[in-house]
Specification:
Number of strands: 6
CATH class of one domain: Alpha Beta
CATH superfamily of one domain: 5'-Nucleotidase, C-terminal domain
Order of helices and strands: HEHEEEEHEH
CATH architecture of one domain: Alpha-Beta Complex
Number of helices: 4
Strand order of the largest sheet: 5-1-6
CATH topology of one domain: 5'-nucleotidase,  domain 2
Amino acid sequence: MHDLLTILPIVDPLLVVRITGGQLLEALENGVYRYPALDGRFPQVAGMEFGFDPNAEPGHQIIRDSVKIQGQYLKKNKVYQLAIKEYLANGKDGYVMFQNCPRMYDTETAQLLSTVVVNHFESIKIVHGIKKCTSGH
């Protein structure tokens, strides 16, 4: 836990929002906007992949045909569920497109990011037979 809290020192609730593919493209464009500056907005993703051209005009840097969600090409009108930190859901680091997205959980019922990471590692232990599952799931 000490190492985890050293890596993730901010107590961030992890929210799930509903977002369209078009809004997600907008978020990715925001994320690469200042590349290679290290200002914290560059997207760290899981379950999706994308490519970008840092030499293209801002707003057109994401290579549209490269964006995949769970191995499927992104559809601009499809609604996706996205797990993000509350900080980003509130529009910080330029992610204003998240501010009006419907939230599946409010801040009071959301898990903390550090708890989600701990649960992930505990689940790996169960899957590999290192730990017994006590919940029956």
